[in-house]
Amino acid sequence: MTGSDRHDESDERPEKRTGGRHSGPPADDALPATPNIAHDVTDADAADEIRTPTRALPIVPDSDDAGSEPTVARENRETIVQNNDDDLDEATMAIQTITPDGNADGVVDDDVVDLATAPVAQETPKTSDTATDRTAALLQAARAWLNQDPDPETQAQLRALINAVDDGDTVALSNLHSRFDTRLAFGTAGLRGEIAAGPNRMNRVLVSQTAAGLATYLRRHAAPGVTPSVVIGYDGRKNSQIFATDTAALMAGAGVRAILLPRLLPTPVLAFAVRHLDASCGVMVTASHNPPNDNGYKVYLGGANNGAQIVSPDDKAISDEILRVAADEHVPHLPRGSYETADEDVVQAYIIQTAGLAHTPRAQVNAVYTAMHGVGWDTTRRVLEKAGFDLPTLVDAQIAPDAAFPTVAFPNPEEPGAMDLAYETAREVSAELIIANDPDADRLAVAIPDLSSASGYRRLSGNEVGAILGWRAAALAASPDGDTDGGRAENTGTLACSIVSSPALHAVADAYGLRFVETLTGFKWVSRVPDLIYGFEEALGYLVNPDTVRDKDGISAAVVLLSLVSDLKSEGKTLAGYLDLFSEKFGHFASGQISVRVSELSTIALVMTRLRESPPTHVGRIRVDEIDDFRWGFGDLPPSDVLRIRLTDGSRVMVRPSGTEPKLKVYIDTRCTVGTLVERRSAAQAALDELDRGMRALIA
Fold first, then answer.
1. 167 DSSP 8-state letter
2. Which one, 190, 242, 308, 619, has least CB within 10 Å?
3. Which positions are catalytic?
């Protein structure tokens, strides 16, 4: 941005908040024109307003400020970009609204080559010259792809589709368009998609092109005379090991030192290995907790990036190299080489450092554990043994890696029903705690006894777990003995969370004199915060050991949580009681989420435009104070399609499109700091319910 393009921030931000402000966009001539949204509002029968979260009172009318208009605060940025985030990890659900929240050598079979050049048995019915030409081009692209596909399964898929299109099957034609009209985009969350043939799916051709492009990027960015290196991990999903070994062989063939982890392992071990082995890059083949037939490709960078996931502009530079390979190279002709296989020392080093996060248990905890058919248990078991904890009771049906995920509709602990077997096991042994990893073990779910629940247990939200782990981190930073009532400590580190996570962590940071930073959605941002001592994201992601791993880690978080519960038990306390103490000390925070799936992405754009051009004065009966628009960036954050609605009662609503799915997502957070614990809970929940109703009406 040139000097002439830059405006003083004081011109963009109001000096102080007043009821109903909505600022305009940056005044730069270079920026897109935006409709004037500062218009008069006349609301003769203005809605009753609620101010309960900070007053612990019942909902009462308060219309003194009714009709005043909120302000959208924007900061000047030159470029508008899409927020690519960890929504790649979401399971796709066919529902309208959710509220919580092969051939290894690369040789192509002869029959495939023959098919690609064989005459068409029957021409596709012609509807127009343009349609005929488009279908012919599509078939040519499909045959070219088939001609370089080393996987018998995806070969058969594509062969069948081509034959069906030749026979005039319009459904097959639509399917083929879905696979070839676009390409699975490589971004800051890497790649993720369904395993199937074609450039818009995950398969060996796409992975090979990605590996070759990434290798070129690493060579171009290596210091003179230095051979770049990559460490590669994989989980237990379908094709994970195949994609990983393809990557290792192609990296080695391209002149990159390639190190394959010794066996299927959790994502946090790969993230650890990037730093431990001082590698230039890390690749993890996983789709986290996506549906069974999905897989993905996460990329980390070493050196100055400290083993964090890629962010812009590295993602664009890597993507450019991948597209060049796809355009100019033939996968069977890409050189392959010999790669190394790491020994168990790297795994053992992770175990030792992770176990060291907990002191000797002061009391053993009767816990239940599930791996959700993933790869978490073996490493978790070894960490717990090293730390001195008794091993938990296992959910036997979910403990071994199984790419079919047979006992769950989606292998995501957040999904309804996913924890049912864990609840059943916990009831059998009267467990005090349930801990669950997602399939690649980078996330942690926690449940505690709850007699009011039909299952006998309640899964804590990611915000609840994030808050109490943040309290523990702050207390340890403030006083080495971990006194949670300790005094303030200045400049001892930073607590961080994403902008859609609970403001509770900010309250903890303030209470302990720590810095607090909000980031865009995605752990790639949280993990890069300077002087970080703890970070979390509401989607069950926690970073408790940033000196060891620069990514969310469900195993280290489990160890730290067990240590906390052990300490509480030794004092005759429970985790439920600890949550109550948190509410008494910092205020009670309540969170909710609305996720609306749409059939057309344009619907989401229309809703976001409507909220910007006609900003609400109220959400339900709670008056809007101001609206922060992140389109041009906000504060130190880069541009993102996000709106933050601040309410006069201290509540907050975040609205944003999903980064990868046709969903509009709304995050609601309320807080009450006065009254008894019961009054605080009631007030915060009342405001949450009101904002939920109001936002559903606004986005309908």
1. T
2. 242
3. 288
Which long-range contacts (C-beta less than 8 Å, at least 24 apart) are formed by 491-495? 491/515, 492/533, 493/531, 493/532, 493/533, 493/534, 494/529, 494/530, 494/531, 494/532, 494/533, 495/470, 495/532, 495/533, 495/534, 495/535
Return d(Cα 422, Cα 401) in angstroms, integer. 16
Instruction: Provide the 10 A C-beta neighbour count for residue 333.
Output: 8
Q: How far apart are CA 501 and CA 539, in angstroms?
A: 8
> Rounded mean pLDDT of 520-546?
96
Beta-carbon contacts of 141 under 8 Å, excluding residues fewer than 6 positions away, are 180
Asked whether residue 63 carries a pLDDT value surpassing 70, the answer given is no
pLDDT band at 132, cuts 50/70/90?
A: confident
The Cα diameter of the chain in Å comes to 81
Do 683 and 57 touch, CB atoms closer than 8 A? yes
Instruction: Please enumerate in sequence order all residues whose Cβ is within 8 A of that of 38, keeping only pairs 6 or more positions apart, or say none.
Output: 22, 24, 69
State the distance between the two ends of the chain, measured CA to CA, in whole angstroms.
38
CA-to-CA dists, residue 523 to 167, 237, 550, angstroms: 47, 22, 9
Query: How many other C-beta atoms can be found within 10 angstroms of the C-beta atom of residue 483?
Result: 11
Q: Residue 496: exposed, middle, or buried by beta-carbon count in 10 A (0-12, 13-18, 19+)?
A: buried
CB 449 within 8 A of CB 432: yes
- Cα 642 to Cα 665: distance, rounded to the nearest angstrom: 10
